Structure formats: C-alpha cells, structure tokens
User: Fold this.
Amino acid sequence: MGQGSNTSQLTLPKAAAKVHLAYQVQYVHAADSFALAAELGIVRPFGLMRFLQVLLACTAVLYFVYLTGLYFAQRSMSYPGARIRVSPEPVPARGLERTVLKTPLGNVETLFLPADPSLQGKPQPALVFGHGNGEVVDFWVSELDGFRNRGIGVLLVEYPGYGRSSGSTSEASIRAAMSAAYDHLASDPRVDRSRIVGFGQSLGGGAVCLLARDRPLRALILQSTFPSTAIFASRFLAPSFLLRDRFDNEAALRQFPGPVLVIHGRADTLIPWQQGRRLASASPHSTFRLYDCGHGCWDPDHLPFWRDVDSLLSEAGVR
Assistant:
C-alpha cells in the first residue's frame, strides 16, 4: 500500500512536467512563427509608433470627410433666408412698384419705393439696398422711409433663390442680380443715375460691394459687414481656399473712389467690431462708427444713424 502511494506521487509530477513541456514547445513554435511572419513583413509588431501612424491616418480621413461635407453644405449654411416662405405678393406700402428682372442666373424681384412725392420734380437720387442673409426684402419695405423722406428713392433687391426670386443663391448670382437691378433703376427717368448710393447690412454689404465693382455708385453705407467670408473659415477649422463665395469686400473698398460709411455694433458676436474697423481701413475715404448694439442692429430712431448718414450724403453731394 505504501509503495503504491509513492509510485502515484512520482507519476503525477512526471505527467505535469510533460504537459508543461508540451506547452512550452507549442509556445516556442508559435513565437517563432510570429517572428518569422514579422520578418517576412506579413505582420508587424503593433508598437507605439504604429499606433500613432494609424491614429493620424484615421484623423486625416475623418477631417477630409468633414471638409468635403462642409464644402457642399456651405451655401445652405451661408444663405438661411432662402428657406423663408413669403406670400405671393409683397407687403403693401405707399407707392411700392414691383418688377421682376430676368438674369442669366434666375428671375430677380425688385421693389422700388419712390421718394416722397412732395419732394419730386427733377430726377431724384436713389439708394440700392442689400439685406442680410437671414432676411427677405419684405422685412424692409417700411424700414427705410427715412431715405424717402429725404428725397431719396429706395430699391430693394431680392437675391436669387430668396423670396419670390428664382434661381440658386451664390456670389455670382447675387452679383448678376445687383447689376440688373441697378441698370433698371438707372434707366428710370425719375432717378438721377449720377447720385445712386449703395447700402448693405451684413451679407448685403457684400452684395453692395459687388455692385460697386461693376457699376458707378456715389457712396457706400456698410453696416455689420465683414472684410471677406475668409474670417468665417477658421471658425470651422477649414482652409479659406475651400470657400465657394468669398465676397472680398476689402478689395472692393480699395478700388472704390467715393466716401464710405462703415457702421458696426460694439456687442456684435457674429462679426466682431474689430472686423468692421479692418474693413473701413481698406478705404482712405471711409468713416468708421461704432454703435452700442449687436449684429445688424436697426434702431435708427435711438442710434445716431441718420446723423452719420446725412453727413455722408452731404459729403458725397447726394443731397
């Protein structure tokens, strides 16, 4: 009995040793196979450098996909007002005249609001207005009566793709619309074509600057306007060369010979007022005014807007 017990005790360790030896042999063979595969380039050890390379490649792919989406979505983001629904007819207003002009890039609606009839007689000066990207011309039908009361007719130009205008919105289509609207206005015998002023708010400033490149304007009023859309690219971590519509307003002001009034809100968070000052510095004939308001603030009865505009119109010989 005692000898059998000793035999079992000797046998078990020998069996365990054999199992352990077999495991070692298999492990060595597996390790040798992996080393051989690595040497042949079939697999590579996944070290820190390799991990960083894969991470960088994945990041680059994701960034490329992001930029591609941003490139194709930027016009939808830049022109939200194109989604505003309007009635088939414009808002009624005293003396309003609606015209639809044909351009190569769509039919464009314009609303002309003649100067106060009591001030008419000889041809009167006029103002071409461009609204912001989140608006339509209907919003401004009665807002610019201060110009009409000063003997200045007002032409509201709707962008292609906005309101009742057809076509797609882009820098090129806006440029074509503004030029067509100007030509129609300048052909009106009631208008003194030598005294036409451009006024734009935010994106409308870009529209008016495009017009200033193509047609003669006596003066410019730019409120809450950007130097160019390149300032927005960095906010989306995107290079500016991907911009489809640049609106280089700085370049336009460098070439513009007449007086310019640049107005900006001190509390503007969309386009900081420093950008307005930068825009104004592009023209040696500019005046920069900083108001206590935000982006696109329109409160002419409580801000010194008319004081500054009257000074500009006098300087330009408009009135």
In short: Confidence is low (pLDDT under 50) at residues 1-10, 18-28. The longest helix spans residues 2-40. The domain at 80-316 is CATH 3.40.50.1820 (Rossmann fold).
